[in-house]
Structure to design on (319 residues):
């Protein structure tokens, strides 16, 4: 099969491209290597793929209509996997116009070209943030998601709605995947697990917003990639799925786990809660289990061990 993966040099994207190539597919990776975090980290993510004959890296932006049109016309894609986005809840509050422009505008560009060229399947990366401060747990795909508490969450919900519109108007098969806090090797450096690991090893203060009792559903990268693969296979019509571990982990426990795995105590600084942060994320994955045969395998304890082993090796390479 022939895939376009947007944001394919990022954390999730690079792992997905590797899996697709390993399974004898052809992949065009589109990434703009923006400066949200060090672009060199993304270049390192895809280094091992650059010389593979079935892999092509294009540096470009999903807002560049002419470039996208050229890419779509030069390739006969079977599947579009749209991972590219401006990420992060707190930064979206500071610059909502940028998030709307990239996340919504870029998604419309890809949906429009996919519908015009009759692409069979479109996979959209959504987020658990669309649930907002939902008081009903675990979060189900049937829950109302019309109360986002950050611009980032609002853009992700807008992308889901636009995808549904394109399904209705043009019969474009779209599957929206709501990811729940993905972690593992190559995780973005601004994410809590990566950031905390770095601060603990460097002996610096860890900022915790609130009292540390917030809970997250952390999902290991290989479980997410398994879920995406299943979604590709079964993409037909319009569907939304939660991809999570379906287990919540308290922030204080996460820090304890990192301390134990690293072998060093954390210096914690408690700070006021931040606007846009939710108190809990918790995935009901019964639909994904039934329809995608999704079955996450990696516990937070195992996943943190894997992440820290990668992190230590990665830091040694940089040093």
């Amino acid at each position: 099969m022939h895939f376009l993966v947007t944001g394919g040099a990022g954390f999730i994207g690079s792992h997905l491209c590797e899996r697709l190539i390993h399974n004898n597919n052809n992949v065009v990776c589109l990434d703009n290597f923006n400066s949200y975090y060090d672009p060199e980290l993304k270049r390192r993510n895809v280094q091992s793929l650059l010389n593979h004959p079935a892999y092509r890296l294009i540096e470009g932006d999903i807002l560049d209509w002419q470039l996208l049109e050229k890419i779509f016309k030069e390739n006969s894609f079977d599947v579009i996997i749209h991972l590219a986005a401006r990420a992060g809840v707190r930064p979206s509050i500071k610059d909502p116009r940028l998030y709307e422009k990239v996340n919504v505008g870029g998604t419309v560009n890809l949906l429009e070209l996919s519908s015009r060229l009759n692409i069979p399947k479109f996979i959209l990366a959504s987020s658990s943030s669309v649930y907002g401060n939902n008081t009903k747990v675990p979060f189900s795909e049937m829950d109302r998601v019309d109360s986002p508490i950050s611009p980032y969450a609002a853009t992700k919900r807008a992308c889901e709605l636009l995808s549904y519109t394109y399904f209705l108007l043009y019969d474009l098969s779209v599957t929206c995947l709501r990811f729940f806090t993905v972690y593992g090797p190559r995780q973005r450096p601004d994410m809590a697990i990566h950031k905390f690991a770095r601060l603990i090893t460097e002996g610096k203060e860890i900022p915790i917003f609130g009292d540390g009792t917030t809970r997250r559903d952390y999902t290991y990268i290989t479980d997410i990639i398994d879920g995406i693969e299943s979604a590709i296979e079964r993409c037909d019509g319009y569907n939304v799925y939660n991809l999570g571990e379906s287990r919540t982990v308290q922030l204080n426990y996460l820090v304890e786990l990192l301390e134990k795995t690293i072998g060093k105590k954390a210096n914690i600084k408690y700070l006021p809660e931040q606007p846009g942060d939710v108190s809990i994320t918790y995935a009901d994955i019964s639909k994904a289990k039934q329809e995608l045969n999704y079955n996450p395998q990696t516990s937070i304890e195992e996943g943190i061990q894997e992440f820290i082993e990668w992190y230590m090796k990665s830091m040694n390479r940089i040093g």
Notes: The domain at 2-180+221-244+278-297 is CATH 3.40.50.720 (Rossmann fold). Residues 96-116 form the longest helix (21 residues).
